[in-house]
Fold this protein.
Amino acid sequence: MNPNHLQILSRFFDGETVDPALLAESLAQPEAATYLAECAALRAWTREDESRPSERFYEAMYRALKPGGARRPLWRWLVRPALAASMLLVGVALGYEYRSRVEPRPATPRVAVETRPAAMSPVVGELAVSGTIARQTPPGPALPTKAAAPPRARSLPVPVAQLRFGSWRETGRGGEEH
Amino acid sequence: MAPTDTIAAEIFERHHVAVFRFFRRLTGRPDVAEDLTQEVFLRVVKGVEQYRVMGRETGWLFQIARRVLIDHHRQRSDTTVSLSDTDPDQAAAPPAQLVAFGLQEAVSRLPNAERAAFLLREVGGLTYGEIADVCDTTEDAVSARLYRARARLRQLLSTRLAFLRGPRNQQGTL
């Protein structure tokens, strides 16, 4: 049996495509059956290996293979949070900008504080302070339908406080009332 | 689509024993085989996002195994496995396992290309085309390597294979 016959039988034994005529010629050789049996023995001895990795190996591998357990470079851990934060910021900024364009700003009421000189009390030693707060609402943005509406302003005299210092006495120790 | 971690875990479950035994036969050392197998599947985890060749994952996996082995040999700068490198537990093996010990010894004496082709075929179960991809060669070269590997193994293990030969074949040359 020449090497070509053995190679054909080797390919045939491995399930590869072979030329049928060459295979028939190879199988007709007297040692062909023994050769195939020896190939089968080599395969059986090779595959009868029952060895398995140790427990240490499995612990390490399951740690590496569990979700999120793979070793990843640091930048990959940072990219996703950074992207999420930047997208959130962009979304908030766009929403704020959209809202400011679509919705007209409501008129902001202004509060003006007017003070008047305190009315002096005829009582010697007593000082009366009084004042009023005039709340004034300035005109809002002109709307097309109410263009001719006159600005409304009203002055509401509100007494705020009246302090009497008649019963106060200087103690020299800082505003202690008796 | 399943998460990449799940895909890698499934590939591990399907093939880690074959990869481990491939390395164990190739190096003769279980501890080295474990390290190499672990490195293979860590690379699988890293590269599984690029894995799209469904149905040929065995070939893809053993290509990674080959690269891991090349890197290992570069680090160690020796590629031979002597008898002293084999598993010491096997020295006291019962007679039934002496055949396997002899096979390990014989496999370790094969040239690297033939040994890799033989183990990829018999342990990994790869086809000639897949072995050719893994070894970066042609199918005809794989066929020749496997034929030569078997011829050498038959020669090295002739005494153990004698029981397969009848009285007539024992006298002839195979």
Notes: Residues 79-98, 170-174 of chain B have pLDDT under 50 and may be disordered. DSSP finds nine helices and no strands in chain B.
